[in-house]
Each structure stands twice: as C-alpha cells, then as structure tokens.
Give the backbone structure.
Amino acid sequence: MYFKLSLRNARRQARDYLVYFVTVVTVTALIYACNGLVFSEEIKTLSETLEMLPVVIVLASIVVIGIMGWLVSYMNNFMLVRRSREFGIYILSGLENRQVARLFFLENMVVGGCALTLGLVLGNFLFQAFRAVILALFGVGYSFSFAFSVRALGLTLLYFMLIYLFAQWRSRRRLSVMKIYDLVYYERLNEETVIRTSRKRRNIFACSFVLGAVGTFLLIGGGMIFGIIGAGCIILFLFGFFLSFASGVPAYFDRYPARKYRGSALMIFRTLTAKLATMGIAMATIALLFTATFISEGAGMVIRAILAGRAAETGCFDLFLGFGEEMNEEETVWINRILEYIGDNIPVENFLEYAVYQRETDEFTEEIRANMEYYRYYDYDILMRRSDYDALREMLGYPAVTSGEGEYLIHCQTYVADVARKWNQPIAVGGRELMPGGVYTEPFLQSDGQSNGYGFVLVVPDDAVQTCPVSHKIYAAMTKEPISEAQYRAMEDMTSDIWWLDGNFISLYAKAQVEKELAYSTVLTVFPLYYLALVLTMAAATILTVQQLSETDRYRCQFSLLRKLGMDRREMEEVLRRQFAIYYAMPAVPPILIGLPCIIRMARATEPGIMVGIRHPFAIAGAALGVFLFIYAVYILLAYSGLKRNVLPY
C-alpha cells in the first residue's frame, strides 16, 4: 500500500501540475542536448576555437542548474503547502513523520524519473537539431545519424540528481520535524510581511519607481561601476514594488475613490492585491528572472547581428589584402612573398591589383562629420578609379552602373547613404570639376583604413587621379574554392612580421575565414545566451502558471457567487481576462521597460554601418520582445484555457 500510494500520488502530481512537469521534461532535454555537444567529437573538429565550447556550455549549465534547483525547490514547497492537510491526516492515521517524508520523496522521484526519461528521449532529437544548426553555420552537410552519448547521459544524470536531491532533502527535513498542528494549518500561512507598516509600504511603493528609473538610466549609461549600481537599483525597485503593491493600490483608490466602483475594478484589484500579499517575494524574483531573460536574449541577438553585419561587410571578397603605399625594402619583400604564396597555393579565379588615392581636400568627409557621428580615419577624401570600380563590381557579381561624362559616384556603407544622397555638390579632382552621378551601398569592404575607403569612396574618371597621391594599395580576388584555415593562417603568419611596421597596417580578409569566425563566435556566445534565456523564461512562467491554476477552487466559488448575484457569463469572462492580463503583465512589464532601452543601447554601441536594415537596434529590440512574448503567451494561454474551462459556470 505504501508504494501504491506513492505511485497514485505521483500520477496525480503529474496531472495537477502538468505545466511544471512539461517544463522539467523540456529543460532536461535541453541539458542533455547541450551535453551531447560537449562530448561530440564531430563538433570539436569543425574549428580549433570550439575546444572552448565544453567550458562555455558547462558554465551555462551551472546557471541552469541553479535556476532549476530553485524551481524544483519552490514547487516542492508549494506542493507541500497545498497538501499539508493531507499529510497531517496520514500522520493521524498512524504513519510517522519520516514515513510521510519518504512517501513525498518517492512520489517526487517517480515524477522526476519519468520527466528524466522523457527528457532524454526528447533531448536526442534536440541534439540532432542543434547539430544540424551548427553544421549549417560551418557550411558542412548534415545527415541524420542516431548518436547516444553515455558521457552526456552521465553528466545529465549528475545535474538532475543535484537539482532533485537537494530540493527533496529540504522538503524531507521540513516534513520530518513538522507537527500535526503545523501541517493542518500550514496552508493558511501567508508570506511573512517584510514591510510591516502601511505607511512604510506606501512610501516604498513611490520610491521604487524612482529607483527603477535611476537604475535603468545607469544601466544604459555605460561603465562597469554605473552598471553595478544600476543593477542594484533595479533589484531594489522590483522587490520594493511587489512587496509594497498591496498598499499602493489602496492608496490610489483612496485618492480617487470614484474609480474604485467603476465596472469590476474593485473585485479585480482586490483579488490581485490579495494574491500579491501572499507571494510578493516570488513575484519580485520572477520579475528579476524575466529581466535577466530579456536582456540575455537581446544580448544574444545583438551579438549575432554585430557578427553577421561585420561578416557581410568584410567577407564580400574571397581574399582581400590591403597595404600601405610607402613600404620600405624589407616590407616590400614580405608583401611580394605573400602575393607569391597566393599565386602558388590558392586557385584564383579572378583578381585585381589596384590603388586608392588621396583627394586634395576633405569636403565630403567634413560633410559626413557635420551630419552624423563618424570616426575620421583619413585627413582627405578617398578616391578610386572608375575602371577599377567597374572591375570590382563585375568580380562581386553586382550589376553594372552608368554615369555621364564628368560625373563621380559615391559608394558607401548604408549608414552614410542618407548624407551621400543629400550631397549634391560638385567636387574638384585633378583640376577637373565633377558632378554627382549616383550613390551605391552594396557590401564593398569599407571597414578599416587599408580597404576601399572608411565608410565611403568617391569613384572618379581614371584621368582625374593621375596627379593624386596614392593612399594605399589593394589585392582583391575571387577563388575557385574556399580558402582553407591552414592557408589563411600561413598568410596571417607572413603579415604578422610586418604588422604595424613604420605605421603600415596590413589588412587581410578571407571570406571563408570570416564565415568560420562568425560560426564559432555564434556557437560560443549566442547559443549559450539563448539557452539561458529559454530556461529562465520557462522557469519563471511555470511558477506563475502553477500559482494561477492552483486557485481553481477559489475562482470557481467566486464566479459561482457572482452568477448568483446576477453577473452573466460574458461579464465573468471579461473579469477573468482582465485578472489574467494584469496578473501576467505585472512581472513582465517592468522587465520589458528596463530591457528594451538596454538592448537598444547595446545595439548602438558598435561601430557604424553594422546595425542597419533587419539588424537595426529597434528591429533587434522588437525581435527580442516578440520571442519573449511568444514563449510567455504559450503559458498564458494554457493557464487561461484551463481556468476558464474549470471555473466559469455554464
């Protein structure tokens, strides 16, 4: 009977707390899939840099273990509170405390074991999905192959035991010492009041908004010290707000008494304040988790956008080498050696050696600086011959451009385009006056000093630059096959001996290497951030949903009484929707108001020309918000549909 009772309770627990069970299964699957990446030899061989992947994933998993440990511990205590009267009856029936504690332990381990088994099965499929994404990032073909890692299983079991056994140990210790009276009345205990007097709570309720505004401002202001202080203010704001909310709402209605009886406002806010009075600390913790979630998710998107933007700009040519004009004899020898290595070892399909030139004045550079934030790299405008420009466009597969006799073109990065299009002034080059002929913005490698201009280049007729001094020289090529990492490292080693000699900086880019750097940077930074954000969101939303669904009986009685008082079903549905909206919005709105400015600030902190188009800071912030709200909405809809079905009278 002892084990039958444990199994019956385990089935009931999995049914009553289905959202929690599904969350544990999903997180277990994520942990196993990530552990599979840790021990995958196939992933490690993609790049030497991925040797750091196990360390990064283990560090992220430590945070996940802490989050899940808190979730399981919270849920165990929540279930203990809800079933305390049942456990008291067991003791009255003759069971000892330690037997009841063992019963609770066994049923949780049965539920945890089922979640672990299902999580491992789902984790194998998730591992295949992660593996396919990573192989696609590195340009490697994917083919399905079932792979079960014993080491990944062992590490997952270790994590699971740490999460569950710690939580069960706390619950077992608590049950072992509780008396029958404590168990019978345990459910009636509310969260201990941290702020005892109503006046203090009202003052803190007002001060918390000031702390929230100051903290957000300090976070986006930049700097480590300001960031730490800002984070502290945010934490104080969240806990102060939720712990004092139960006094803030009555104070609001005392000031505006007419609004108290408008519609169903009194009932909605009375129910909400009663809920927050019993779980203010939990709500503050959930809001803190949501803040970390949103910023983590946004940071991942910002980093990915920065990496992709840089790769799009610097990876347009298969091979690109830029070097200064004034090279001494030793440096010239090294440059010739690199070009000789390219000719002997890399199958080049098309190449061009050319120079970019210095204009006598810097009118266009000054125009850009006057209208936007722009880092000035040159003391002059950069010029390019029209014939070289046409050859480079053909090499890159861009459509040919036309212009009239005596006109110049501007090729620039996207962030300069607005200024360039408004610029309608003629320019003087080599004694000739040239009129504006068009602006083009395709990727053209304009991101450093030894490239096709920093942010822009003025394309002029060939004869106009005959008397202009050379700024630097460039070798650009398209190859028949991607440049290997070994070939790139060999060229990089050659350039390292002349790097920064006599002020001459050597620019070396290879498309294949740029794409590989994008891939491993994404795997090492973006992937763990998404991993953390997903687990944080699921853990926090699970607690909110379980708390709401646990009130089914109370809601059923409340709406049954409202029906007797004359409220129809449509009005009751409206009340339930408003209660749900406010309940779920409260821990989510502050993190969104804090996180959006932080994400936009992060996106704007990079060099110009990167965060444009779909990578615009506002687009990144919108995407982060959309993903967060989508996951959150799944939990909200599950809770709302279940509660509506069970509590509203027909």
Remarks:
- The beta strands are 319-324, 348-358, 382-385, 407-412, 427-429, 432-440, 456-460, 470-479, 507-510.
- The CA atoms of residues 225 and 323 lie 40 Å apart.
- The chain has a mean pLDDT of 81.
